[in-house]
Automatic annotation (TrEMBL):
GO terms for biological process, alphabetical: phosphorelay signal transduction system
The protein's name: Response regulator
Residue span(s) of domain Response regulatory: 8-119
InterPro entries: CheY-like_superfamily, Sig_transdc_resp-reg_receiver
Modified residues (4-aspartylphosphate): D59
Amino acid sequence: MPRLHHRTILIVEDEYLLACELETQLREAGACVLGPVGSLQDALDLLASGQHVDGAILDVNLQGAAVFPVADMLLDRDVPFVFTTGYDDLVLPARLRQALRYEKPLDIAVVLRRIRQLIEG
């Protein structure tokens, strides 16, 4: 299990069971968890509140809304993130195609390892 002590990770995921599992695994890895939030507006509000974020896991489709404005905010702040989705790369706008994308169902350990690597540079 990757160690994420003292790292704040934002979870943006609208599938309740997956969001809970991500939260559990992140906490077990020592992370502080923001969220999970399940809507685009809640994610934008959370980021706008000035909360510190070290990394994020973003579901591409949130109740029919694309998470891309959240990804843009994170890019502007140099915060690493990964996408989770059931869609292929073509759903991502060109500006975001360099981001890592993990297909559902997720191997959560792999996603957490990658988040740790991205945060550590």
